[in-house]
Write a structure and sequence with these properties.
Keywords: Transcription, Transcription regulation. By secondary structure, this protein is an alpha+beta fold. The protein is 14% helix and 19% strand. It has a domain of 114 residues: Beta-clip-like (Beta Complex).
Length: 232
């Protein structure tokens, strides 16, 4: 399977309102892992972010990302969604724009560059997970980015998932269930030129609000933790 972050940078959007903790749905708060809490983001002042309150080890997997399944024509903005390829449906968006439809992964923000990321997305059985790329200390914001398998650490982590999938498929008990649900070889496909072109792609994202080639925007993304007590 293949996942694709949908880029709608040419879509006209209204001014973004600042998110507040009071607006976070109760089911999101109840679903938070014990290692994280929600606080205002340091990379985007209009959004809530996810912050570590306890050490998180490298290789920790969170998910899946939850949202409404929609066609591209139903998408209104590109902030809180991924696009996943289904053999019987084609490309479908997993849209968590509505907080009531998503889970806490909705509040994980984009890193300003690959260097600042500590999470990367991973597609398993047509569901999207975030996996830690490095240890995350208390007081650090969880930030996701996708720079493909050009990053040796990400490539190694993806290969680890492939090996795990192959091991499960070789088990007589799970061979039938896993053989049709996991297609790691699809991640080797070349990227498409645009979300609307024909063919498949390896996972990629194009966050229109995260142009890390811009020095001014990059400098604005320096991480400063909010004033909170991390052992709460």
């Amino acid at each position: 399977m293949i996942l694709l972050f949908l880029d709608l940078q040419n879509t006209t959007e209204p001014a973004v309102a600042t998110e507040t903790l009071a607006e976070v749905p109760e089911h999101v708060l109840r679903g938070l892992p014990e290692e994280v809490r929600l606080f205002p983001s340091a990379v985007d002042k209009t959004r809530i972010g996810v912050w570590a309150t306890k050490p998180i080890l490298k290789g920790k997997k969170f998910g899946p990302f939850v949202g409404d399944k929609k066609k591209r024509s139903q998408v209104k903005n590109n902030v809180y969604m991924w696009e996943v390829y289904y053999p019987n449906l084609g490309w479908m968006c997993i849209d968590a724009t509505d907080p009531e439809k998503g889970n806490w992964l909705r509040y994980v923000n984009w890193a300003c560059s690959g260097e600042e990321q500590n999470l990367f997305p991973l597609e398993i059985n047509r569901a999207i997970y975030y996996k830690t790329l490095k240890p995350i200390a208390p007081g650090e914001e969880l930030l996701v980015w996708y720079n493909g398998e050009d990053n040796p650490e990400i490539a190694a982590a993806i290969e680890e998932e492939r090996a795990s999938a192959r091991s499960k498929r070789s088990s007589p008990k799970s061979r039938k269930a896993t053989a049709s649900a996991w297609h790691p070889d699809a991640l080797h496909q070349q990227p498409r030129t645009s979300p609307g072109s024909v063919g498949r792609s390896k996972p990629r994202l194009q966050p229109s609000s995260r142009d890390h080639s811009s020095k001014s925007r990059h400098s604005a993304c320096s991480l400063t933790a909010p004033e909170v007590t991390w052992n709460q």
